[in-house]
Structures are given as structure tokens and as C-alpha cells.
């Protein structure tokens, strides 16, 4: 019997401010190319004021993934926190328009602003400057009433487990979800795990799937031997495609699919996760699901932002 949700996800409800920026601009503002910098509210406002031709769109890895799930005709839910401000209200309106269910009360009172992320494009490179605002203001109560058996997958942004504010609630959510649905960890943005040994152990003990790009997986592999663990590990490799392995054994590699016209790489990894998980939820094989992930990622490469502006055809061709 099909569950009500293909996927539910938790993440920072962060509005993306997308702009083009030269390498010199990144250096001036101490933003590593293809990396990220967490800023104070004041610092972020100063950087944003120096940008031109910005585009404001709702973002955040988990929310982008559920937006693509919805565009593919799937059913998704989202746990997220915003403040009563313009960015927060716009964020919630976008979720409603996309028919994505809110799975917890969305408003937080502190800090007094919604999360903002500057997405800076330098050619095909993406760099980030952000402030989480109230995006980490979760409590265990936000998850305890939700029935995780109604979803095939629970997607978690790993950096919430490194946040002192969010960590206790996310650990409680993992405990609540375990044995009710498959837990998926997105390593996005984390290339250093020093000081987070306990978090790594929680991931290894609870997660069914771990997803990240080459740098993120390499950093995670420095603190844990995935060859001795049972998780399925998915590594996205950009133009080199993606691969899935388990206990150190390669299961499948799929090639990348070039877009008809490249516009932006923002959100392509989030879209890959959507295509893969929806494929698994709908009964596709691992290889078919991986291939669907690369196709979905290719579609987002043709978009200006991380979320599709129109529905994506429900049936995507898959390799035999």
C-alpha cells in the first residue's frame, strides 16, 4: 500500500539571494569559492548591499528537494522554521503553492529574522554566505506528534546536527523516525567533522542512506570507515555522474546527463536526491533511481533557481 508521503524532510527554511559575483568579490568578503561562510546579520547585510541584480527565491537543500518531489508529481512534507517577516511569509506561500505540507508549527520567535543565504555564482562555481536566522529553532515537540510511518523517507540536513540549537531536536526526531521510515542524511556543505564525533555516531547508527558530493563524502570518510557500515552511500560527481556503494562495494555508477542549455548549477544536487528518492519510493531499481536522479538534476541545470517553475513530467525515461 502506498504511503501518504513519498518523503518528508527537515531543513533550514532559508531564502536564497542569487547573484553573480567575481572571484575578487568573494576574496574581499572572505567567502571561499565553492565553499560557504556563516555571517552575522550585520555582515550579511553588508555583503548583500554590495551585490547587483539579485534574485530572491525560497531555498535550502531539503526544501528544494521536496519542491522537486512535488513538481515530479510526488507527495512531500516539510519541517521548517521562519520568522514573521517578509522572507518568512514568502517562504510559506511558496510551499503552499507547491502543495507541500507543513509538518510542524512554522513560526519561531527568536532569532528575530528568517534565514537568508547569498548564493554567489562565479562561472559554474557556487559559493555561499548565510545566516540561519531562526531556521535552527526546532524543539522535540515539533516532531513527536508526526507519524513517520506515513512516509517512505525522512531527509535530514546534516548541518542541523552540528547546530547547538537544532541538534537535540533533530536527534529526537531521528529516534522517533527510526524503524518507521528510511532515514536519509544529506551531507551538503560539511567538509570538516572535527569535534562532532557524537554526531557521526548518531548518523552511522540511524541513517539508511548518506548522500554527498566527492568533497563531502571524503571529509565524512576521514572520521568513519564506511566500508564497515551498512549504509548505502551515494556520491554525486558533477559532470562525472554519480555512484552508489555499500560496505565499500560499488553497486552502480550512472553518467551525468547534459542539460539542453546550462543556466545554473544551484540546486542540482538537491534535485538529484529528489529524483533518486522518488524513484525508490515508486519501486524503481537502484540503477533506475540513480539514473532518474541524474535526469532530474539535468532539468534543474536549465533553471535560474533551485526549484522548477513548472511541473516536471511524472514519467521519466530510465535506462534498462
Describe this structure in words.
With 320 residues, this protein is α/β, with parallel strands linked by helices. The chain has ten helices and 14 strands. It has helices at 23-28, 41-49, 61-71, 86-97, 141-144, 167-177, 197-206, 214-221, 268-281, 286-300; strands at 5-10, 14-20, 36-38, 55-59, 76-79, 101-102, 115-122, 125-131, 151-157, 182-186, 209-213, 232-236, 242-246, 249-254. The strands form two sheets. A nine-stranded mixed beta sheet has the order 6-5-1-9-10-11-12-13-14, sandwiched between helices. Helix 3 packs across helix 9 and helix 9 packs antiparallel against helix 10. It is globular, with a radius of gyration of 18 Å. The two termini are 25 Å apart. The relative contact order is 0.16. The mean pLDDT is 92.
Number of continuous helical runs: 10
With strands numbered from the N-terminus, the spatial order across the biggest sheet is 6-5-1-9-10-11-12-13-14
Distance between the termini: 25 Å
Summarize model confidence as the mean pLDDT: 92
Helix fraction, binned, reads: 25-40%
Largest sheet: 9 strands, mixed
Total strand segments:
14
- What is the C-alpha radius of gyration, as a whole number of Å? 18 Å
Strand/helix succession = EEHEHEHEHEEEHEHEHEHEEEHH
Q: Could you say which overall geometry the principal axes of the C-alpha atoms support?
A: globular
Approximate strand percentage: 15-25%
Low-confidence stretches: none
**Which structural class is indicated by helix and strand composition?**
alpha/beta
